[in-house]
Amino acid sequence: MDGETTRRDVGAAHAPLSSDHAADPYPFYVRARREAPVFYSPAVDAWVVCRHGDAAAVLRDHRRFVTAVLAARARQHTPEALAILASTPIVERNLLTVDPPEHTRLRGALMRVLSAGRVAALEPRIRSLCDGVIDRFEPRGGGDFMRLFAHPLPIVVIGSLLDLPEADFPSLEAWADDLVDLMTGELPADAQPPCARSIVAMDRYVFDLAERRRREPGADLVSELFGAAETDQAGLRTGEVAAMLQILVAAGFETTIRLLGGCMRSLLTERRHWEAIVDDPARIPAVVEEVLRFDGPILSTLRRATEDVDLGGTTIPAGALVMVVVSSANHDEAVFPDAETFHPDRAAPAGHLAFGQGVHFCAGAVLARLETRVALERLSRRLPSLRLAAGHRVSYRPNLVNRSLEHLHVEWDDRL
Known about the structure:
Strand content: 5-15%
Radius of gyration: 21 Å
Number of helices: 19
């Protein structure tokens, strides 16, 4: 069988929004890396990139591969959903949808207020918020870890950072979930308008928030963004700040929710891993990095080729959509020996692409790592008996971009 035929066969087998693929996408990508590491997928009308070296090359090359993070599903939106989305008060593009030089200006402002030092200073507050969530658990019992802990924690952290009223948290979470479903999932026509209305509601919320903080600044990140431009640049406009808040709210929730779920599933599936961090919390940072590699919260990201590009012996034509499968790159045997096995003591997992690479490297990576580390420290300290519930079932929601763990049922004997 020649190479072109093999690539077509692999492309025809690519079904990223099927329930089987959502449950376990990794076996398919083992085949793809071996037989057709760059292939065209009719399912998403995109060229799919599977190996680590090729994926890193695309992510670093923002000139030949411009961001197209929302392009894959936009063609599936109904006219009614598109008309609703057009009513948003935010006309500015956000960090995920622009490239340099505009991206450089916007990201620079965000990173000045979301610096590593500022994030590190949040640790005592995050620890207290973790304990507050755990305090609501029954002293003895069980439940869905995703609903009990993975969803509530990122929301209260972002809410604290932006100084938002707690009463608004349920709406923000629902809006963020609907955004993910509409923009990167697969929804029937009748489900699209309600999700589009949710997105516009969130846009109005963050736009109004930005406008209030512009007029009446406080001691919060939103207020600081208005003064965060370089001295030789104009300050950020209300719409630009609101567009940044879209990302902080949606990505800030979703990425950390999925990362917490992935950590807990990986640690409890072979419970000796959980027992190891109960005995020695110093292991936790390495656990977080290995989970990011092994079963991280991001499956893929999207780019568009600006010219014909040869990648891995395959020509990607100008204008084509490119799906960079970071979850496959993170299982590349050429980079990570025994890649299909979870090894919390892996010598060097730091080459993973879970947060991307290049100019679009995740701006919230430091915060996501800190939240997850502190969460595992407090959970292992206060719920050392935590385990998967008898007869538990794990389910994932089909999505092109997010590794969306829906439920993870756990049990515990006590709460310290």
